[in-house]
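Ticket #4471: structure output looks truncated?

Reporter: J.K.
Steps to reproduce: submitted the chain below (545 residues) through the standard prediction queue, then opened the result file.
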Amino acid sequence: MHETDSEFLRKEPCPRCGSRDNLARYTDGHAYCFGCRHHEPGDNMTGQTEAAEPRTTDFVPLGEPADWVSRGISLESAQKWGFTRSSLNGEPVRLFNYRNSAQQLVWQKIRFPKKDFRSKGSKEDMCLYGQWLWRDGGKRVVIVEGELDAISLSQMQGHKWPVVSIPNGCDGAAKALRKNLQWLEQFEEIVLMFDGDDPGQKAVDECKLIPFTPGKLKIASLPLKDANEMLMAGRVKETIDAIWGAKVYRPDGLVGVSDIMGELLKPVTFGLPWCFEELTKHTYGRRDGEVYGFGAGTGIGKTDFLMQQIAFDVVELKQTVGAIFLEQKPVETAKRVAGKIAGRMFHVPDGGWTPDELTRAAQELDGKVYFYDNFGQTDWELVKGHIRYMVVSLGIKLIYLDHLTALGEDAEELGLIMKEMAGLANELGCIIHFVSHLATPDGKPHEEGGRVMIRHFRGSRAIGFWSFFMFGMERDQQNEDPIIATTTIFRILKDRYTGRSTGKTINLGFHSETGRLFVRDDDPFKDKDAKEHGFSNESDDELPF
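Returned output as attached by the reporter:
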């Protein structure tokens, strides 16, 4: 049996210095005097009758183990840990005495009354505080930040389970643990219980990078700053619970079912509705963190759709909206949205509206819509910064961006923008609606009712990959039938949520007096050539998403 396997039994008089109770007797029979360093071998040990001389003799005299009532430390704990009270240059000091596996004193941390610290000894031989008290290996070792925390936690556990602390504060935590990695790896669990302040949590992050065996490192947190504060507050049970409830560290991005159980069990509900109930039913609404792409030819009606959707968000959903229209001045955007609210075409000179009507409708937008007033500035980094500010500082949840292709032309550039846009929506929990221009199709133009496909979107591979839903809008503007000429086919091109609405279409009519879109109950294409008006059986691109 080694001395490090033994447990403290009782205090005894020292036969060498005559101290009444400085000699500590242990279960294997060995004894050690914390006053004169007299040492007696254990039952199965041979050797000196006095501890080997330390490598340096420039230590503060050990003094005697002493309790620390104001910090909740008992005399038994002081004896167990060799925590003593002495004096240096006439000042009282408390000593945290570091020993090696042979019980040699190798380093001292000296604590003065005003919490000033000094140290003496060999840093090369210094190990984790308390490491010499425990047998090598076992179920669990808990690592705390300071020596007093180690004694406190050990006391709360009845000195039965291994506890150690780092020697030089949280700044040196990672270095100290790396140095003693071989000893720590002998335990099945390694629990970090550092202080809850910023330096302590920074140290935890640094220690996560140490190459512990995967799944072995756990992180525990306390409701108070540290273990000593928990001891003084009498919150022993909570401290023990914190050890047992320590979470296994996994690199960022890895979670288990228990980590997401709360979210997993939440009822599944519809997201925010669209302005058309039929579209809401197809998509189950709009969900936080998602991006939605719209594509249409020139003059098809995508602007009308976005304006009507913004008006719906403001008036019906009471949401605040961020409008980033890169090729449209804020005044025009505001007039168009206000027109959707009032049922007036305020952007048209002879629209039959009055200034009072415009004023009333515009007032409904005040404080509810924020515009990007930087016409022609199409730098993605600038736009990205505005989106972040709108969401974080203004509390905006719904962002509209028209159009994506103004920010980049080539596929590589658009791919990077789409990746960052999707990441931004996920990070901030906002919803981003964006418009993309379309490439000219091989067959019938989109402006003449040609079907929109995913491959027509510029940068289609990246847009298709990162978008949660993609929508195309088609209208045969030159058709002789005025009903068909004013009917837009709103087509769902991609449905990542369920996949069931892909290919669904909604026929949107346009009311010329109110300027509003509406869902047609009748089907103006029913008796027409379906292929001519966009109902082709041609399948879309087989893209990998």
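Triage note (M.O.): checked the attachment and the full token line is present. Residues 215 and 248 are 6 Å apart (CA to CA).
Status: closed, working as intended.
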